[in-house]
Structures are given as C-alpha cells and as structure tokens.
Amino acid sequence: MSGSPDAPHTAATRPAALRLAADLGRRRPLRLGVQLAVSAGIIAFLLWQIDVVKTFHLIRSSNGLDLLLAYAIFIVTTWGMAWRWQVLLAAKAIHEPLGWLTKLYFIGYAAGQVLPTSVGGDAVRILEHARRRPDAKGDAAGAVLMERVVGSAGTLVMVGIGLVAAIGRYDGIRLLIWLEIAFVLGMAAFACLIFSRRTNEWLQSQSGGRRLASAFRSLWGAMHDYRNHPGALVLVLVATVGLQTARIFSIWLCGEAVGLHLSPLVYVVMGPLLFLVMMVPFTINGLGVREAFFIAFLGRFGVGADAAFATGFLFYAVTIATSLPGGAILLWRSVRPMLVRAPQP
Q1: What is the gyration radius of the CA atoms in the chain, in angstroms?
Q2: Which residue, 119, 145, 204, 216, has most beta carbons within 10 Å?
C-alpha cells in the first residue's frame, strides 16, 4: 500500500459496503428513523399480543439440531444463489469466479441487517462489483437486478405450486390465491415493459438529461438485453425454484424446533410469500413485518401466536447467523489497512 504508514484511514480506503452504509446513515436519517419506528411499533404490538414468558421458554427450549440444519441449508444455498448471479453475468461476457461472487453475497447479507431489506444487500453487491469492473457498471448492475426479478418470478412459481397442492386440503386460502394472481399480473406487466423493444428504443433515444437519467437508461438497456439470452433466464428460474424449496425447509425446521409439527406443504405455501414480503422496504431487514406475517399466516392453521412468534424469531436468528461470515469479511477489510500501516518494531 502506498502512502505514509501513519496516513489517516480515509473514506477511499474503506470497503465500499461500509461506505454505502455510512452514506445512507448520513443522508437518510429520516427514512431510517421512520423504518426503525415502524419496526419498534410492530414489535411492541406483537409483544402485547403474546405471552412473552411462554414465548421465551419456547425459544430457549428449541431443538438445537433443527436450527443447525436450518442454518446449514442457508449457508449451502448461498453458493447456489451466487451461481445464479454468475450465470447472468456470463450471459453478458462478464466472467467472475464463483468464490468471489459468493463472498459478495455474504457481504450483502451482512449489509442487509442494517440497510432496508434485501434491496440494501443488492445495492452493496452492485457497488462492490462496480469497483472491480468500472467499465461494465451498467451490465453488472443489470445482472443483479435481473437476478432479483427472475428470483421473484421463481418465488411466484413456488407460491402457485403450493396453492394448487393446498386446494381441498386447507381452508381460508382464497385471499392467498387472489394475492398470487395480483403478483403474477404485476410481474407479467413488468416483464412486458422491460423486454419491450419499443419502450427501450424510446428510452434510449432520450438524449441529454442529468447523470441519474443517463445511468437509468444504461441500466434499463442492460436488463432489456436479457431478452436475447432466454436460456440464461430459464436456467436461473429453474435454479431459483430448487433453492427456494431448500430454504423453505429451513423455515419448516424452525417450526419443528419449537414443537410445531405441521406438514411441509404449509411452509411451501408460506415460504415464498414470506420471501416476497421481506423484499418490501418498510422496516430495517423486515424486523416486525416478518414476525407479524408468521403470526397471521400460521394462525390460519391453528398455531398459537406464541409458537408462531417463536418460529419467526428463530428464522430471524438463522438469517442473522448467515450474515456473520459477511460481517467478519467486512470487519477484516476495515481493520486490515490499519494493521498494514502499523509501524514495525
């Protein structure tokens, strides 16, 4: 590293993920404050609805082996998530090692604990990748966002499969069917818009404008270009269904850990909806919304609020544990420059 050994630890030497978190903290205090207030309000309401002592007992006496298996599923499937990203990048002739992309995924998980939901993690991945390939920022960002879009489509496929399997077995799923229809129609409309040649040609013909508008046109063009790579999109969609299925079993294991012996089919319906809800940036990392969803959904199947809250809390603990490798990477990258600059005895 060049420069004086005692040079200050400037913003330029800090990891991009940490800089983004710091920038968001400085520039959007009102938004973060509102999100924290919403989370706190929802959690306070839920704590009022449950028996805190009983819920704490369920969490404390939960089966550690089930939780360990749930954690292992999340860790292993992270490599699969990174592989999806690698496939979309390769379609644009951007070839990255799977290990490096997996590391960025873990960093994104860590950032997502303090930034607004998984969208914050996506922003960190885009920024980190842009530092590696500044000449392909549009295509790199487009790959991340297209991965999110196709991932959402795969989640809707999973919801549809679960609802079809649940017809005639469970009551009270009519609302879920209408929600699925609404999500599918919204996704279809977005796909028609993003892959429309006419829309893209009109957008790209708009010259001038501010830097943000130019970046938006570049990003839109990068996503639109995936219409020429249907094979990559189908491959990522199939992989998403497989990965989501595995992660649904991690939710089921959290329920088993507190003594809920429901059919995995319940979680096949619930899991994809939860993944969609977690993408909405109402709160910090979905705190409060996630637990409310567990109580509302599992209540339809005769599960008490205490057990449902405990299941949601344990699932949250699993996601926190999954972010620890990324947190360790960020911590090492922030400490390492200081160690390198430390004067030698």
Answers
A1: 22
A2: 145
The DSSP secondary structure of 267-322, one letter per residue, reads HHHHHHHHHHHTTSTTSGGGTTHHHHHHHHHHHTTT--HHHHHHHHHHHHHHHHHH
CA pseudo-torsion sign 236, 241, 245, 250: positive
Give the whole-angstrom CA distance, residue 90 versus residue 78. Answer: 18
Rounded to 5, what percent of the chain is helix, strand, coil? 80, 0, 20
Neighbours of 97 (CB within 10 A): 10
Structure tokens at 152: 């959402």
Cβ neighbours for 249, distance < 8 A, ≥ 6 positions apart: 70, 73, 264, 267
What pLDDT score does 6 carry? Answer: 37
Residue 311 lies in a domain: yes
Strands (E) located in 48-152:
none
For residues 271 and 248, give the distance between their C-alpha atoms in angstroms, rounded to a whole number.
5
Residue 279 CA: distances (Å) to CA of 149, 161, 323: 11, 21, 17
Q: Is residue 152 part of a domain?
A: yes
Query: What's 23's DSSP letter?
Result: H
Q: Are 282 and 35 in contact (CB under 8 A)?
A: yes
- As a whole number of angstroms, the distance between CA 225 and CA 231 comes to 13
Query: What count of Cα atoms within 13 Å lies in the side-chain half-sphere of residue 35?
Result: 20
Q: With respect to residue 140, please indicate whether it lies within any of the assigned structural domains.
A: yes
- The 10 Å Cβ neighbour count of residue 212 is 8
Which residues does the chain have with pLDDT short of 50? Answer: 1-22, 24-27
pTM of the prediction? 0.78
Residue count of the chain: 345
* 246: containing domain: 15-334
Reduced to 3 states (helix: H, G, I; strand: E, B; else coil), residue 182 is helix
How many angstroms separate the CA atoms of 309 and 214, rounded? 45
Q: Is 340 within a domain?
A: no
d(CA 305, CA 298): 8
User: Residue 12 has what pLDDT?
Assistant: 42
Total domains present in the chain: 1
d(CA 55, CA 46): 11
